[in-house]
Amino acid sequence: MMKLKTLTIPALFLSATLSFTSALSAECGACEAGHEKDAPHCSGAHASHFTLKDLSGKKHSLSQYAGKVVVLEWTNFECPFVAKHYHHSGNIPKLQKKYTDKDIVWLSIASGKTAAKTNSENAQEAGSAASAVLLDPTGKTGQKYGAKTTPHFFILDQAGHIVYEGAIDSTNSTKAEDIEKSENYISKALDELLAKKKISSAKTPPYGCSVKYLN
Amino acid sequence: MLRAQPDSPKLTVQISTLVSEKFLWIKITPLPSYHFYYLDPGEMGVPPEVQWNETDDSVNISPLQYPLPKRFKTGTLHCIGYDHAVWLRAPYHKKNEITPERITGQLSWLSCNEDLCLPESTTILFDLTQVEAPPTSQPWPQPTPKTWQSQIQKKPKALIITLSTSQKTSLLPEILDVFTTQKNIQDPTQPIVSEKKSAHETSITIPLSEYTSPKSFPSEWIISTSQGGFILPAQRTID
Q: Above 0.90 for ipTM, yes or no?
């Protein structure tokens, strides 16, 4: 049985009961019981709260983005699977630019040992156009979400539900030339979410390097 | 045996090649602490692959074959692959009397250790005029003996393979592990459970990946036993 804890949080998150043991709270079960028609994006759990510092030391809390679509992207700029979509193609920066222009919040997160190696220089070198690059040196936020690989994506809807979890696209490789022939799950999910459609692929197998947790 | 000419001076594996009568052989020897991946790499990884250069259709080269892999963890992830020297092989067949003296290809692989992963590649060369004896140090999965019978039952989150022998004199070996040649079939985070019902019957429970669909069931199962690896062809599952 998962342990649940209720927090005091800003208005739009008042109804949310946040799980501090896992990003996948008991709410998920209720959605699976047959409420999909009423709430097309209620296929997932409420997202776990976090507060992390960005590369300039400024704090970002998930709750400050209440009411917005949020993309959480676990990253490691030294990982070749990440470089495929940054340095070698500009694929992720293009997505970041496209969707942050549509008022979507895009938070890249470096967890565990990777946090110490992530700085403004290598984010800039990668061409990052994220809303913020956040550092999670303890890895606790990554572990709450179950982030396994870099990259590994979680998309939260305006109500704070996780509506997509998984890979950036359909081709497990480090080769930039594979991007063109791949199905991009992130743009598909975000477009469906913005069009108020049900997310057609809510969960896909993530691929990439392992997240370098401390333990 | 030929040593590959590395495209990069910083390769984390050593590559050498050999031509036998039926196979093109590639030996991959990772440096200490590095590993590379099997066809089903587990929670992360990409298996080695070869992009063959043009052979003017006089030689037919089949897909790479992989020996029995092992399981290990990369960070917190459960992976399947090799942290030791192994031979991969590709069956080849001369379609014409006149064939090229050399076949070349681009071998690419992902090499990882606890801290980093490196995608690497090198040109490999096979001299068809230098046919040698195949390496014998490494056993290859064999077809299951004809005395074995098998049944595969589909459960909601697992497949159960039941192996039995029809002849009383034919005993089943100890089942050590099961692998698939496709990603996202079995759940690499869960152990495979083998239960010996008798000397002639064993059931193997294979936890299924949450990403498995019946359409994606593999064409074959590789069963690792105390007597080596066996290839169990795909068959209709029972619900």
A: no
Exposure b/e, A68-88, CB count within 10 A at least 16 = b: ebbbbbbbbbbbbbbbbbbbe
| Number of structural domains in chain A | 1
Would an 8 Å CB–CB cutoff place A77 in contact with chain B? no
Asked if A211 is an interface residue toward chain B (Cβ–Cβ < 8 A), one would say yes
User: Which CATH number characterizes residue A26's domain?
Assistant: 3.40.30.10
Tokens of A129: 């156009």
pLDDT in tens, B93-144: 988 777 788 899 999 999 999 989 999 999 999 999 999 999 988 989 999 9
Given an 8 Å threshold on Cβ–Cβ distance, is A148 in contact with B43? yes
- Please report residues of B whose CB lies closer than 8 A to that of A113: 115
Question: Is the Cβ of A203 closer than 8 Å to some Cβ of chain B?
Answer: yes
Q: Does A149 touch chain B (CB under 8 A)?
A: yes
Task: Quote the pTM value.
Answer: 0.86
Where b means 16+ CB within 10 Å and e means fewer, B6-36 reads eeeeebbbebbbbbeeebbbbbbebeeebbb
Q: Does any domain span residue A113?
A: yes
The answer to whether A167 touches A179, Cβ cutoff 8 Å, is no
